[in-house]
Structures are given as structure tokens and as C-alpha cells.
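Bit of a strange request maybe. I'm writing a small parser for C-alpha cell strings and I need a real example to test against, not something I typed by hand. Could someone generate the C-alpha cells for this chain?
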Amino acid sequence: MSIRSIALELYRAKQKVDALQKMHDEASLDEKAALVQDLNLAIKELHMLRRMLDGEKESGSSRLRFSGFGKSKK
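Reply from user aminoacidic:
Good idea to test on real output. This should exercise your parser:
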């Protein structure tokens, strides 16, 4: 998955979390209970995508820097 597509998914996940939080803030007590699970899942997805994006950005430069370590010399 490219950095661009991960960033796009991260943006969509952030929008979803924001929308669910707004719905949760405006909901009645009965509706809040139902929204809590959806909100928690959306937050977990957001954090997962953030870690994926951070890992992709970090691994690009480190791959170039350490690319010669795996090669054997003959």
C-alpha cells in the first residue's frame, strides 16, 4: 500500500471519528450506548492507520541507508 493511499484512508478514518464523536455528543443516553462501540472501533482503526503511515514514512529512508547490509561479498 502506498503512502498516498494510507494517508487518504487516514483522512477518511479521521472524518469518521469526528462525525461519530459529534453524534455521540448530541445523542441521548440510550443512543450513546450504541455509539460507543462504533466510536471505539473507529478510533482503533485511526490509530492503526496512523502507525502504518508513520512506519511507511520511516522505513523508506532506512531501506536506502541499510540496503547494502544484506549483500554478501565474494
